[in-house]
Design goal:
Elements lengths: L2 E6 L7 H9 L4 E4 L8 E5 L2 E5 L12 E4 L4 E2 L1 H13 L8 E3 L3 E2 L2 H14 L11 H10 L11 H22 L7 H15 L3 E2 L1 H10 L4 E4 L23 H8 L6 E9 L2 E3 L12 H10 L11 E3 L1 E2 H11 L3 E5 L9 E10 L2 E3 L6 H6 L1 E8 L16 H14 L3 E5 L7 E3 L5
Parallel strand pairs: 1-10, 1-11, 2-5, 2-10, 5-7, 6-8, 7-9, 11-15, 14-16, 15-19
Antiparallel strand pairs: 3-4, 12-13, 16-17, 16-18, 19-20
Bound molecules: guanosine-5'-diphosphate, 6-O-phosphoryl inosine monophosphate (IMO) and magnesium ion.
The site of guanosine-5'-diphosphate has 23 residues, from α1 and β3.
Length: 427
Amino acid sequence: MPALVLLGAQWGDEGKGKATDLLGGSVDYVVRYQGGNNAGHTVVVGDQKYALHLLPSGILTPECTPVIGNGVVVDPSVLFSELNGLNERGVDTSKLLISGNAHIITPYNVTVDKVTERFLGKRKIGTTGRGIGPTYADKINRVGIRVQDLYDESILTQKVEASLDIKNQMLTKLYNRRAIAIEQVVEELLSYADRLKPYVADTVLVLNQALDQDKVVLFEGGQGTLLDIDHGTYPFVTSSNPTAGGACTGAGVGPTKISRVIGILKAYTTRVGSGPFPTELFDADGDALRRIGGERGVTTGRDRRCGWFDAVIARYATRVNGLTDFFLTKLDVLTGWEQIPVCVAYEIDGKRVEELPYSQTDFHHAKPIYENLPGWSEDITKAKTFADLPKNAQAYVKALEEMSGAPISAIGVGPGRTETIEINSFI
Ligand code: GDP
Ligand code: IMO
Ligand code: MG
C-alpha cells in the first residue's frame, strides 16, 4: 500500500511544500524524484518559515528520512548552503540520502543556461537560470557528471573534458564568452566530494527495501504537470517529468508500488516564466490575487502571473497522472470576491472545447469560457472542518471537485501546517 506521490497539478507553486510537510509526520521517507533547485517550496511551521529548493520538504520532520533520488539534478554548492541554513536553525539533516546516480549541475551548465536564454531573446523560456535544462541535456546526451563520479578523479576529469570541450567551442565561438578551464571545474567538483560522501547511498535499494517492509514512502514532485517535458506546454516547460510516472524512473520504484497520487491544486492559477496561460488576468483582479496570495517566486523573486481557476487543466492533470485525490490550496485567498469566475472550457476558433487541445497552436488561441460562482466574505482561515466553511465556499470546492475529476481530500486555508481542513485521510 504505502507509496504515495504528491505533485503539482498546474504550473508549479501550488503549495507542494506545505502539503508534503503536513504528511511528513505520517511517512517514513520523503523523496524528491526530479528537478533540482529550480523548485522553491515554502513550509511554515509555527512562526518559522522555511524556503526549500533542493531538499525534500520532509527534512523538517525528525522521524522522516529525506531522499534525493536518481532523477534529481544536484548543485552541491546550493545543497550545502541549504543544509548550513537549516543546521543554523537547529534542523537535523544527518539522515539525508542522495543517490549516487543523481546528476550534478556543474558551474558550466549554469553558465550555458544563462547565455542560452539571453541568446533566445524574446523567445526565451524564462528559466530559473539554475542550469537545469543543460544538465538534463547532458544526461540524455550521455555526457553528464554523476554524484558517484566525484569519487574517481581520473574518470571525473575525462567526463568533464568530454562535456566541456564542446561547450567551450560554443561559448567562445557562438556566444563570444571566455572558455571555462577544465582543471578549475574538476577542482571545484572534487572539493564537494568529502562533505557529500556520508549522504551518498543506493537509494533505489533503500526505498524498495523500505516498501517491502511496509514503510510509508512519499514522493514529492517539483514544478507541476503543465511544466512536464512530455505532458506540459512544450517548449515552455522544465526539462524533467514532474508527472506521476517520473516518480518511478526518478526513484527506481515500480508503478505497482504506488497506491495514491495526490495532485496539489491551487484554488486559482499561477505561472512563472513564459508560455501560454488561458486564464491569465492583466487587470485589478490579477493584481489582487498576486497581492493577497503573496504570488512572488521563492527561487527567483519574479512576480507570478495570476489568473482564475482552470478546470480544463485540472481534468488534464487528473488524466495524465492518474490522480486519486486533490489537495486544494489557498482557498482563503479567494475570500472577498462577490463572484469567482471559473474556466470550464475553452473557445478555440469559435468552437467550444472541453479538453486540453493537443495542438500547441490551438492552446495558444484558447479563450476561457467562464462560469461565475458566488463568492463569500467570511474569514475562513480558522475553519477546521468542511462544515465550518461558508456555504458558498463549500459550493466552490464541490464545483471544482466535480469539474476536476478526483475527490478533494484536503483544503488549505492558510500557509501554516495547522491551517488545513482534512476531509479524507491520505495514509
Ligand atoms: P510549492 O512550490 O508548490 O511548494 O509552492 P510555493 O511554496 O512556491 O508557493 C506556495 C505559497 O503559498 C507559499 O508561500 C506557501 O506558504 C503558501 N501556501 C500554501 N498553502 C496555502 C494556503 O492554503 N493558503 C495560503 N494563504 N497560503 C498557502
Ligand atoms: P516549484 O517546485 C514554478 C519554470 C520556470 C520556467 C520553466 C523552465 O516551486 O513549483 P527551468 O529553470 O526549470 O529550466 O525553467 O519552468 N519553473 C517553475 N515555475 N515553480 C517551479 O518550481 C518551477 N521550476 C521551474 O519559471 O518557466
Ligand atoms: Mg514553488
